[in-house]
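Quick one, tokens below. Sequence please?
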């Protein structure tokens, strides 16, 4: 894709950029060629004229709801919400599965047909363009840097309106309900059935519908991104595996607090990690978790703590967190 930009300067300038906000993944993003032109170097003649701006971005690395929400949907919201859908989205690395998954959001932010430059060889003229999306950090919105001062509560409200979610507050839920995120591969609950029985014994109904629950529970992972669909007054419980405390905080704890959610952390002990059995109690993987990163790099650290680790919770110890969550949502319902 080539973008021609008029310039008052006498010189011709050409550059490229990859329209994806997370710089660590730029290598796989299709670049956009941008040419500044003056009166002596006219661009190709227009075939289609538009009266609204274009926003060019990449659908990037899809298939993971956390990355999709943090690096595309939230940046798209903060970049374009103030245009009130008067923009045209031009999507590099166009993936039909991504478009299908987020079509409700995309059509809410833009009232115009989406464009796939790889399948469109025509020349379009726009009064203005934005190449790339603003990015404020992991699952983050900074109201001071957004026209209209939107923050995470406003983004959450936007999502509720977009999907027609009717439960705004936990007081609308008749009895305490908890949604447990069941992972199938890594970072699984090894004693999931026992955990569910304990949760029911505390007083929760365990369910599968996100907007009709008081509490969202999961091991650190992409599924916790669904906290954006929780009603006000709800609680997010994040189980933190070994050596994932930092990422648990900066990704999901900070996001939960920014949305005004109640947040509870459950940091596992080493005996609750499957890594203890794999590597042994005296291994540096257990006694000095950061040593894996220091000596072997980030990929090795990820392979061990993200991809090889599961958890078997101490039910008596974890019960205290579940009881606290029940107390929070019960008090919230009573006070509203």
């Amino acid at each position: 894709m080539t973008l021609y930009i008029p310039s008052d300067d006498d010189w011709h300038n050409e550059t490229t950029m990859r329209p994806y906000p997370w710089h660590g993944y730029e290598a796989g993003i299709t670049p956009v060629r941008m040419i500044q032109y003056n009166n002596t170097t006219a661009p190709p003649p227009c075939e289609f004229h538009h009266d609204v701006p274009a926003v060019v971005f990449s659908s990037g690395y899809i298939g993971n709801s956390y990355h999709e929400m943090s690096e595309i949907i939230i940046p798209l919201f903060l970049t374009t919400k103030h245009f009130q859908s008067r923009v045209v989205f031009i999507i590099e690395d166009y993936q039909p599965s991504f478009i299908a998954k987020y079509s409700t959001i995309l059509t809410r932010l833009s009232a115009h047909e989406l464009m796939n430059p790889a399948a469109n060889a025509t020349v379009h003229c726009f009064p203005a363009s934005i190449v790339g999306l603003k990015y404020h950090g992991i699952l983050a919105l900074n109201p001071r840097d957004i026209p209209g001062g939107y923050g995470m509560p406003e983004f959450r409200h936007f999502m509720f309106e977009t999907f027609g979610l009717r439960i705004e507050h936990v007081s609308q839920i008749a009895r305490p309900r908890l949604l447990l995120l069941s992972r199938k591969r890594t970072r699984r609950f090894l004693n999931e059935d026992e955990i569910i029985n304990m949760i029911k014994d505390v007083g929760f109904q365990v369910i599968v519908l996100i907007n009709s629950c008081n509490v969202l529970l999961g091991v650190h992972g992409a599924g916790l991104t669904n906290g954006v669909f929780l009603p006000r007054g709800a609680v997010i419980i994040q189980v933190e595996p070994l050596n994932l405390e930092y990422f648990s905080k900066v990704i999901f704890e900070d996001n939960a607090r920014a949305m005004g959610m109640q947040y509870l952390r459950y940091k596992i002990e080493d005996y609750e990690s499957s890594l203890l059995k794999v590597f042994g109690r005296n291994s540096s993987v257990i006694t000095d978790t950061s040593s894996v990163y220091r000596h072997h790099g980030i990929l090795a650290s990820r392979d061990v703590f993200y991809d090889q680790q599961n958890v078997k919770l101490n039910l008596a110890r974890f019960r205290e967190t579940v009881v606290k969550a029940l107390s929070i949502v019960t008090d919230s319902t009573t006070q509203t």
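The two ends are 53 Å apart (CA to CA). The chain has a mean pLDDT of 92.
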